[in-house]
Amino acid sequence: MSRALTAALALLASAATAPPTPGGTVVRPGESLAQLAARTLGSEGAGPELLAFNHLEGAPAAGTQVQVPGPERARAVAAIGSARSAIGQSPPGSARTEAEARLAEAESLLARARYAEAAAQADGAWKLLAEARGERSHFAVAVEPDGRTRVAVREGVPVRVEAQGRARAVRAGETLTVVRGESPGTPQLDAGPAEPPILISPEPGLKLALEPAPGGLGPVRFAWKPVPDATGYVLELAGPRKQTLRTTQPVVTVPGLPAGKYRWTVRAVQGDGTLGPPATRAVQLVPGRIKLEVKETPWQ
Amino acid sequence: MALCLPLLVCAPACRRDAQAPPAQAPKQSVRATLAQVNGSVSVKRATGDEWQAAVNGTTLYDDDKLRTERGSSAELHFPSGTVVVVSEDTLLGIAETRAAPGRPQADVTVLRGAVDATLDRPANQSLTVGTPAATVRAGREIVFQ
């Protein structure tokens, strides 16, 4: 097993355990460096990091007081975990290659107990990929009366769910439920509507000629097929006028909109109040008043 | 003349002071603004005990609470551009935020109900949603001090 892989696994194991208790501890009789690292940092592979943090050259003898890093390490480990998750989801390309290099540097800095620099490198890798993807982040959080929390990520970069000192990344299309007082379990594939609403009208890319109406041109009718189990819908208009409309029916008629190009997005409101995946189309509204002139006929 | 100038500058301010109400606490930063208010939506200020009806444009500050009744909804628009859709039958609070300068951050605490959040530029925005069971961090989560 390569050193890099070993380090990565050690880091994963470290991140998956409870955060270390900051402060100091005493080396127990017969305790190896790996055992000490596992006890204090949650990872047998973190021995060199513990030595670097304490400015030690070799394994400390029994009875030696060693210092244990605090929140600064947790922050660095969290940043590295987020960066790794983002890299795992990103397609091959220059951004990913550079992000991987930054992540490797962050892991190296972590192993040398340079936590602030490690966090900054990992954050830079994450930001690089987030900007390259150019996606927005869309997620929902629902809280039951007993405090049980359900997190569903619809699109974009993963979100991080923390509870009881443990953290989990939840990716697009996944759902995670956390019971009060317990640490987060394993994310599941989202059981929500598998498909976004099927849009009906206006047709894709249509140039819609409309009469003048209050507010611009109109009326504009937006329609889509009903989504099973939906309790309502949210229609978002982006263009010369930005507007969000909520409805219980799969159709909305807007009396008037300023002329121009619009993107309209529909999401179903699910049973727990969260929004389902979006469906988007473009439409252009143009003045289309047909002027009728009836001339007098010379006929008798 | 040199002596008169400060007096001239001071005069209007002094008159204002004489007529002004008692000094108030420094104004807080607006954390979020309500939009798309639909149905029965109310706000309880951090400094008050009463729930007041909310309307579009109502501004929210640290530790304010927001409540939507059944069949009601609203949107929270944060200065960072983050939009949080608040579903029906939801109770949430605006959490006190200590963001670093230039790092837009928004925090809410959901005690009951559901929210749906969208970050248009997650590389430059962050949102933390606290609940009784967990903390959800989205966008750029590391805020360097």
Question: How would you describe this protein?
Answer:
- The complex is a heterodimer of chains A (300) and B (145).
- Chain A is of the alpha+beta class and 300 residues long.
- Chain A has four domains: 3-69, no CATH class; 72-133; 138-189, no CATH class; 199-287, Immunoglobulins (Immunoglobulin-like), CATH 2.60.40.10.
- In chain A, β10 and β11 (216-218) form a beta hairpin.
- In chain A, α5 (94-111) runs antiparallel to α6.
- The longest helix of chain A has 19 residues, at 71-89.
- Chain A has a six-stranded mixed β-sheet, with no helix packed on it. In chain A, strands 3-4-7-8 form a four-stranded antiparallel β-sheet, with no helix packed on it.
- Chain A starts with a helix and ends in a 13-residue tail after the last strand.
- Chain A has six helices and 17 strands.
- The model of chain A is unreliable at 1-21 (pLDDT under 50).
- Chain B has 145 residues and is mainly beta.
- Chain B has a single domain (29-139), classed as Jelly Rolls.
- Chain B contains one helix and eleven strands.
- The longest helix of chain B is centred in the first third of the chain and has 16 residues, at 4-19.
- Chain B is globular and about 35 Å long.
- Chain B starts with a helix and ends in a 6-residue tail after the last strand.
- Mean pLDDT of chain B is 77; it is low at 1-26.
- Classes of the chains: A alpha+beta (300), B mainly beta (145).
- The interface between A and B is large, with 48 and 38 residues.
- β3 of chain A pairs antiparallel with β9 of chain B.
